[in-house]
């Protein structure tokens, strides 16, 4: 008969990090126990020790003539010794039970000063005969225990606080304060720590992936390039708006490259102590050299790579500059870093130091821009994989509905759509859930219970109708998709446009868009004879447009082809790059531009006042109107190019059966398009 084998449990896997922290915490337990023991010793009153009494008890004992002697020790305590006959009475029986000896001392009283104690002693015995009065004796005794406690306890507390602070500064590392200058980079090596993200998980970014793929290929097959005398770039800088996938691309490089990968944030180098940042840079490259070939990735490098000499440090010893100097030396100094490739990411390349951007350090700048229509479709394909979507869901429609969205925005749309579908108890995530998610993310939560008077609602309707009218009639304005007067977020009404995905903008396009912006206020003035505060966001945007045209893009005849654009606008500047006279000219030209487009908007609205009123009445009736409603009133729109027309009517054809209760995407008080859709 086979013997049953008792399964042996696997050996207990200890967590080295927890054990390490446990050893570090031992010293704190020692200090805590020692301090507690000292405090307990101070308040501990062993058997045979004199009892503490108050002055009232002592005064009674003096009047009853129970006290034989009073000895003041070290001008702090008055020790009381009872008479023998009084000690043996039942009144003081508890002294005998506590084994306090006959010769005492039996009690002690804490005094503030001998002079005050003498005065109180005389007052307490004034009714007694002089020969029976007791005078105190003074005596000095060394208090070794008290002196030791007075010195040791504060010293232990100070040492404990210092050790605690140093360990915190050291980030919990084993070396404490001595490890403060060590690099905090996370290393991803072969095995479990290696990143599981690959280039297949990164949708879009074709050009960027091509460049970083070459870097990965060089690390895997260096002979392919070195046999022809070529050298791999020492560094690659990923530049692009937030949420476009810079960090994700770096993680994919870590997953694809079969080499160690060091990841660190730019802010991890900066500390309150001088020299720590430079020390961490040296330690980081020392670790990288030991693991070469490898890759170093620094996220948000602008935290330490800002241009030197542009801050308000007044040439002081700036820790960031010291860290940057050390980084520049390590990247391309006298020593060579063979096999070490640097990858960094930032969305503020304009503030970086020129020495950091030169060839030999960051040889390549890889621009990662907002995804176009096709790339948005690919990104939706990646984020829709974990969702239970409707089989009839059209990804192309979703891509068309989200112009100017980054990869992070699209991921947020997918997640929000799943939450909306779950909230409505649906089995799958459908098209309407995604449309509602886009509305929710950009415009905010719909406020159905917001109290709006009829007059306010009418003003909002004519305001939005003014935007819709002028933007429809101007060829270069952004095509209108839908308009609503349903409050959403901070907006009382809003319009959703389809901005053209273009690389440059002409003066005519900017003027038409400015004209459409001020059309809401122009409509209020023409139809009601008064204006309101609802155009705040419109005026803010049109003012920025006007000043940009005059002072940045050189689109003013009086100022000329001059640009006062400051790439390092994040730094402080004590003077303007132009005179006061030029400033006055800029103000005059900007105001003239705004007045011109405003008068133009009023003229267009006056010519189509009846049609605008018809559009506003539809808004009051349905609360939301679409492109086909505007087209039915004003006729077919003229487009600046065929591609823009196809994009707009492609969305219209895909959403013919959309519910008329849909709301618009607008985060501001009026008809501002989503931030990612602005020019």
Describe this structure in words.
With 679 residues, the protein is an alpha/beta fold. It contains 23 helices and 14 strands. The strands form three sheets. It has a six-stranded mixed sheet with strand order 6-8-9-10-7-11, with helices on both faces. A five-stranded mixed sheet has the order 1-4-3-2-5. The protein is elongated and about 125 Å long. The termini are far apart.
Characteristics:
679 residues, 5-stranded mixed sheet, 14 strands, 46% helix, elongated, disordered C terminus
Taking all Cα atoms into account, the compactness measure Rg is 40 Å
Alpha carbon gap, first and last residue: 84 Å
Which of globular, elongated, flat, extended, rod-shaped describes the shape?
elongated
Secondary structure: number of strands: 14
Q: Please tell me the overall pLDDT.
A: 77
- Helix-strand category: alpha/beta
Percent of residues in helical segments?
A: 40-55%
The side-by-side strand order for the widest beta sheet comes to 6-8-9-10-7-11
Low-confidence stretches: 1-23, 172-178, 312-316, 656-679
Q: How much of the residues is beta strand, in percent? A: 5-15%
What secondary-structure arrangement, pairings included, does this model have?
Blueprint (H helix, E strand, L loop, with lengths): L15 H28 L7 E2 L2 H9 L3 E7 L3 E6 L1 H4 L5 H5 L9 E4 L3 H11 L12 E3 L4 H26 L16 E3 L17 H15 L2 H4 L8 E5 L6 H11 L4 E5 L10 H16 L2 E6 L19 H13 L8 E7 L7 H4 L6 E4 L5 H11 L11 H7 L5 H17 L7 H13 L10 H20 L6 E5 L9 E4 L9 H22 L7 H16 L28 H28 L1 H14 L1 E3 H8 L7 H13 L25
Parallel strand pairs: 1-4, 2-5, 7-10, 7-11, 8-9, 9-10
Antiparallel strand pairs: 2-3, 3-4, 6-8, 12-13, 12-14
Helix pairs in contact: 1-6, 10-11, 13-14, 13-15, 15-16, 17-18, 17-21, 18-19, 18-20, 19-20
């Amino acid at each position: 008969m086979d013997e049953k084998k008792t399964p042996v449990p696997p050996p207990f896997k200890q967590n080295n990090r927890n054990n390490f922290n446990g050893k570090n915490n031992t010293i704190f337990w020692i200090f805590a126990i020692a301090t507690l023991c000292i405090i307990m010793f101070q308040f501990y009153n062993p058997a045979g020790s004199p009892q503490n009494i108050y002055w009232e008890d002592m005064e009674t004992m003096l009047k009853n003539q129970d006290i034989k002697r009073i000895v003041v020790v070290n001008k702090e305590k008055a020790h009381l010794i009872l008479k023998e006959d009084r000690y043996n009475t039942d009144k003081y029986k508890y002294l005998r039970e506590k084994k306090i000896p006959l010769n005492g001392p039996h009690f002690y009283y804490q005094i503030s000063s001998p002079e005050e104690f003498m005065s109180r002693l005389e007052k307490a015995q004034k009714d007694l005969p002089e020969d029976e009065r007791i005078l105190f004796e003074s005596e000095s005794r060394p208090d070794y225990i008290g002196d030791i406690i007075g010195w040791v306890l504060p010293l232990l507390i100070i040492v404990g606080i210092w050790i605690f602070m140093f360990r915190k500064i050291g980030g919990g590392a084993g070396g404490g304060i001595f490890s403060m200058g060590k690099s905090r980079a996370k290393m991803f090596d072969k095995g479990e720590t290696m990143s599981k993200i690959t280039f297949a998980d990164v949708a879009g970014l074709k050009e960027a992936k091509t460049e970083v793929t070459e870097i990965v290929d060089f690390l895997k097959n260096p002979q392919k390039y070195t046999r022809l005398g070529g050298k791999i770039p020492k560094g690659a800088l990923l530049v692009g708006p937030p949420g476009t996938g810079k960090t994700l691309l770096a993680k994919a490089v870590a997953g694809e490259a079969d080499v160690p990968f060091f990841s660190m944030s730019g802010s991890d180098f900066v500390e309150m102590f001088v020299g720590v940042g430079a020390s961490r840079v040296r330690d980081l490259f020392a670790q990288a050299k030991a693991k070469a070939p490898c890759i170093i990735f620094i996220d948000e490098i602008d935290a330490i790579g800002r241009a030197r000499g542009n801050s308000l440090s007044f040439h002081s010893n700036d820790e960031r500059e010291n860290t940057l100097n050390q980084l520049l030396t390590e990247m391309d100094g006298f020593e060579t870093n063979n096999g070490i490739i640097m990858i960094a990411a930032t969305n503020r390349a304009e503030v970086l130091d020129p020495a950091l951007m030169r060839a030999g350090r960051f040889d390549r700048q890889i621009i990662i821009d907002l995804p176009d229509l096709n790339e948005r479709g690919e990104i939706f394909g990646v984020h829709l994989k974990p969702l239970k979507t409707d089989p009839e869901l059209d990804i192309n429609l979703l891509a068309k509905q989200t112009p100017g969205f980054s990869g992070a925005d699209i991921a947020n749309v997918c997640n929000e759509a799943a939450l909306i579908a779950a909230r409505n108890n649906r089995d799958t995530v459908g098209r309407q859930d995604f449309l509602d998610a886009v509305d929710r993310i950009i415009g905010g939560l719909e406020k159905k219970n917001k109290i709006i008077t009829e007059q306010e609602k009418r003003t909002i309707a004519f305001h939005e109708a003014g935007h819709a009218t002028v933007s429809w009639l101007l060829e270069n304005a952004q095509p209108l998709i839908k308009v609503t007067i349903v409050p959403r977020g901070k907006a009382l009404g809003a319009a959703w446009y389809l901005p053209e995905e273009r690389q440059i903008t002409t003066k005519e396009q900017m003027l038409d868009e400015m004209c459409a912006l001020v059309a809401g206020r122009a409509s209020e003035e023409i139809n009601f004879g008064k204006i309101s505060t609802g155009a705040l966001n419109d005026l803010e945007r049109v003012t920025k447009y006007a000043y940009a045209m005059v002072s940045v893009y050189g689109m003013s005849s009086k100022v000329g082809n001059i640009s006062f654009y400051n790439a390092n606008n994040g730094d402080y500047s004590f003077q303007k790059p132009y005179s006061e006279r030029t400033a006055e000219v800029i103000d005059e030209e900007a105001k003239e531009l705004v007045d011109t487009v405003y008068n133009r908007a009023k003229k267009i609205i006056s010519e189509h006042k009846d049609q605008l009123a018809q559009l506003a009445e539809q808004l009051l009736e349905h609360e939301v109107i679409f492109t086909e409603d505007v087209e039915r009133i004003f006729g077919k729109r003229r487009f600046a190019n065929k591609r823009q027309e196809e994009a707009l009517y492609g969305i219209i054809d895909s959403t013919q059966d959309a519910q008329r209760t849909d709301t618009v995407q607008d985060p501001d008080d009026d008809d501002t398009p989503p931030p990612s859709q602005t020019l």
